[in-house]
């Protein structure tokens, strides 16, 4: 939460251009107008700055300073007011005193001990135009004094405030305090900076670190608002660039998040694209950003590196300042007076980042939420993802991307009752080795056991399509070896050295060689002789017919269809038929010793394979002329 409200932004709007990053999707947050106090007729003015303490809101309202009761947020009303010395732009309250950034009159100190009768006690004219103020507990006020820079004022004597130190810089937003540091954002510049100032010695404030709010040398930029929460500064930025070739201005508006953990080296942590922005405040992981179109947008900043717009509400008037206090937000809305917003609770959040093993972001990952709610999101380019507005319950988050495995494979929440902002995953690239095993004719060979050794050990068996496949392989070296009884393969194995990409054409050619030599017998016929191997104890017998054909007799254990195939020694399919068989009854088929084209085969060795109906066997046939 910032310690003081956002002041009216002074100076002309500057324009500049920067790459616009895509905002996260908008999700629901209950944000609505709870009450409003219009400009009172007895104390005309326009609300520029607001500070809240207990049940009172203190409003810098140009010519007046209002004290408003907000005990009932639905019915705020004016308790007292006092005239400003010039034009009150910002206000801070501490220990019964209000400290007012009073434009050309510098700093004005007001006694607000009696809210019904506030009174001006003292003032300090400054060289510039005071636009923002903050106070600490040590009796110092910190003033953003327009072009005259930053000033430290001793207010221990409220009747005689005195300057004790200063620092030259261009016009800035209001100062935000963090311990002995004051953080300021320069309103305009080429480029402007976020400055972190050491105030441990009020007489000698010094810049500790700076961050360029844009790296575009040809851009002009305007910081519209600033809030600090913990180790992060939130800067609303209006920027544009004149595109010479297109002859037009290109605009970039955003909320920038700057990591100020190390005040000597602040750096950008994230940004989210917005419309034209204005003042901003942050509390309890929620940023409320005032927009030029009189809308207040809610942005979830619980994870500064992973932002999401949660919704918004339209507010009357020109929005000049905002301060969050608990579940309410107070908006200084110019001529519309003081507007009070009610903030609903944020739902539970599960968020994290998907990275590669080297820590860089992994995009293209789909994350699926299952359980008491179902949702699917895609990781951003940085690898960040989030699931918002979850109710307590049981959930599982599972990442997926083709070609990757993840550690852990999933995150399981048996009873989610709080936020998990570090639900990270590490993706490891994995690869696929695949191929086809076929005979010399290109026909697939089923039932081939393909073994893989190396960085992974395993096996796969080809199906009817002859295809094998090994997935999820880490980078490394592998050897692939096919095996099937009665077959010889070329090559005998394939080596994939240092696998760093999918290898999908690791094919093999198979040739039938049979089960080894056995005693042969001869059958004579008119057209020559056929040498056949006598069958072992089994259910398939081969003999020669009187017409020179090969007779195949099969006896099966059960009824079914027997697929009979004749191969050459190279694995070429010559003949194939389906034979219907009955249980324990002989069935026969004949092969006329021709190939698929109807031509007689040459003398030589051939093989017959019978599969089906409980049978699986191979026979060797020798044909002579």
Task: Please describe what this structure looks like.
Helices cover 0% and strands 55% of the residues. The protein is mostly beta strands and 625 residues long. The protein folds into four domains: 31-346, Methylamine Dehydrogenase, Chain H; 349-428, Carboxypeptidase-like, regulatory domain (Immunoglobulin-like); 431-512, Carboxypeptidase-like, regulatory domain (Immunoglobulin-like, Sandwich), CATH 2.60.40.1120; 521-624, Immunoglobulin-like (Sandwich), CATH 2.60.40. The strands form 13 sheets. It has a six-stranded antiparallel sheet, with no helix packed on it. It has a five-stranded antiparallel sheet with strand order 15-18-19-20-21, with no helix packed on it. It is rod-shaped, with a radius of gyration of 41 Å. The model is unreliable at 1-27 and 516-538 (pLDDT under 50).
| Global shape | rod-shaped
Portion of residues within helices: under 10%
Largest sheet: 6 strands, antiparallel
In angstroms, what is the radius of gyration?
A: 41 Å
Q: What is the averaged pLDDT score?
A: 87
What is the helix tally?
A: 0
Distance between the amino and carboxyl termini: 101 Å
Structural class: mainly beta
Number of strands: 53
User: In CATH, what is the homologous superfamily of the largest domain?
Assistant: YVTN repeat-like/Quinoprotein amine dehydrogenase
Lateral arrangement of strands in the main beta sheet: 45-46-53-52-49-50
Q: From the structure provided, what is the oligomeric state, counting identical versus distinct chains? A: single chain
Task: Provide the CATH architecture of the largest domain.
Answer: 7 Propeller
CATH topology of the largest domain: Methylamine Dehydrogenase, Chain H
Q: Work out the strand percent.
A: over 45%
Number of domains: 4
CATH class of the largest domain, please? Answer: Mainly Beta
- The residue ranges in which pLDDT falls below 50 over 5 or more consecutive positions are 1-27, 516-538
